[in-house]
Specification:
The chain has 116 residues and is mainly beta. Helices cover 0% and strands 53% of the residues. Strand 5 and strand 6 form a beta hairpin.
Length: 116
């Protein structure tokens, strides 16, 4: 069992930047992938950015060039640096750890609200 806690959400104006932080109480280098999902009001939860155990990274098309995922294994911490934020980035952002054998863990989420 791993608990994940997100920090760093809040209100921000369009064009601004935000850095989300996720702290795990276990070894975040152990899962197959660590990532950030987001769920906008009335929409399904979608995978935004992932970093895999081999170091490879994927980003959802809408955030490419505007977000950077990284992790500090020594601190069991995952980050998502977001820039040039848009109102459509408004969502609850969830930290996730995906296990190689299937399943995984999710945080409780942090709200990001981008105003125009």
């Amino acid at each position: 069992q791993m608990q994940l806690v997100e920090f760093g959400g809040g209100p921000v104006q369009a064009g601004g930047s935000l850095k989300l932080t996720c702290v795990g109480d276990g070894d975040i280098s152990d899962p197959c992938a660590m990532g950030w999902y987001r769920q906008a009001p009335g929409k399904e939860r979608v995978l935004t950015s992932s970093i895999y155990s081999d170091g490879s990274i994927t980003n959802e098309d809408s955030v490419k060039g505007r977000s950077a995922i990284s992790q500090d294994n020594a601190k069991n911490t995952l980050y998502l640096q977001m820039s040039d934020l848009k109102p459509e980035d408004t969502a609850v952002y969830y930290c996730a750890a995906d296990l190689c054998e299937g399943g995984g863990y999710r945080g409780q989420g942090t709200q990001v609200t981008v105003s125009s």
